[in-house]
Amino acid sequence: MVAYTYRMPAGIAGTVHRIEAATIEPQETDPTNPPTAYGVPVKIVAGRMQPLAAGDALGAIYGFNVRDFPGVASQDPLGTSTPPAKGGMSVLKRGYLNVTLNGSTAAVKGGPVYVRVATPASGKPIGGVEAAADGANTVVLPSNSYFMGPADAYGNTEIAFNI
């Protein structure tokens, strides 16, 4: 059994917190271009959910894909999980969500949330959440979206989205 001396893990990317404050919609996944991770912003193209692509603008973000509960068991290794490549998935339109923090800048409580939309690099994927602006490579979510605190040792942190 693990003993948490200082701080428990912040959570798992794609997990919704404070469910009573969340607005979640079911959406169909685009089987030709499905999201490959939970807790990332998604867009709707021709009525189906897709991950962000290089060059997408802030207005393309429809919401964040989230883990369903209860859900179908995954065959992925412990500590990882891949969203289904077809069928339905849930999208958070408003609420509190765990995400993976990318980049080297630490998140701070109340700090702005940036999403990478261009020039992917190691540890900075397109659609990744970051805590610092990177010129035209990132877009900042509206002021009603912010970090709820710093990331844990695994890079997990909570954001308030569209609150």
Structure description:
The protein has 163 residues and is mainly beta. It has one domain (16-161): Virus Head Decoration Protein, Chain: A. 0% of the residues lie in helices and 33% in strands. The protein is built from no helices and eleven strands. The chain has strands spanning 16-17, 23-29, 41-45, 48-51, 63-66, 87-102, 114-116, 129-130, 138-140, 146-147, 156-161. Strands 1, 2, 3, 4, 5, 6, 7, 8, 9, 10 and 11 form an eleven-stranded mixed sheet that branches. It is globular, with a radius of gyration of 15 Å. The termini are far apart.
Brief synopsis:
The chain has one domain: Virus Head Decoration Protein, Chain: A (Beta Barrel), CATH 2.40.300. The chain contains no helices and 11 strands.
Task: Write a concise keyword list for the protein shown above.
single chain, 163 residues, mainly beta, Virus Head Decoration Protein, Chain: A, eleven-stranded mixed sheet
Instruction: Give the ordered list of helices and strands.
Output: EEEEEEEEEEE
Form type: globular
Helix content: under 10%
CATH architecture: Beta Barrel
pLDDT < 50 runs, ≥5 residues: none
